[in-house]
Amino acid sequence: MGKKKPIIHNKRRNKIRIHHEGVSSLMVCGVLYAALLGVVWKLHGHLPWWGWIFVAAATFVYGILLNFFRCPIRMFQGPTTKSIVAPADGHVVVIQEVDEKEYFHDRRLMISIFMSLTNVHANWIPCEGKVLKVTHQKGNFMKAYLPKASTENERSMVIIKTPHGVEVMVRQIAGALARRIVTYSRPGDECFIDDHLGFIKFGSRVDVYLPLDSEVLVKMGQATVGDETLIAKLK
Fold first, then answer.
1. pTM: predicted TM-score of the whole model, two decimal places
2. Which amino acids are annotated catalytic?
3. Which residue among 70, 113, 206, 214 is least crowded, i.e. fewest CB within 10 A of its CB?
4. Which of these, 83, 159, 91, 157, lies nearest to 126 by C-alpha position?
5. Kind of pairing, strands 180-183 and 196-201?
6. What is the mean pLDDT of the chain?
């Protein structure tokens, strides 16, 4: 394992920036908004009453997009050895033992975090180690909080082997509105807590599969903060 990247100073770690995955979308929406506003102004010489409604609605929608594409700078402050950190902002919707049939082919402990439209949709690496495998599988786009979404929706899978030899699976899952999953990890990469795993556009969830003897540190319904909330410890 290589050296961990330097810690960002505390006064900078709370800074909010726009994720690069959203720059083009925000630019296109901004140009369309300005163009439509210009057309209305040219036709009427002023903004009619319905024009102000359009401005209010468009500003509201653009604000949602800005919020969605936030990319806060975060650094995990706890011990990284055997730690599993939340890979996403959201709420815990599943904590249970499941039969994992895609890679492990045995019983695993699954912790799932559902991201709503108002959450940050950047995803983080949940543990330190080396990336063994990365796959992307096409599928459905049913609501991400449904149990079948883990195995039937479009998804990406990343397998990480920790320095202690434990294999951890992270699965990014598309939702009813999500149409693009971006995964940055590649087989052979060394990965660290604080690294970005990827990004999912518009409503989705992230599943983490752990050994059955892992110590769960979150509860159902609990809110999580990506790269900050400790969700489990490996034995």
1. 0.76
2. 204
3. 70
4. 83
5. antiparallel
6. 82
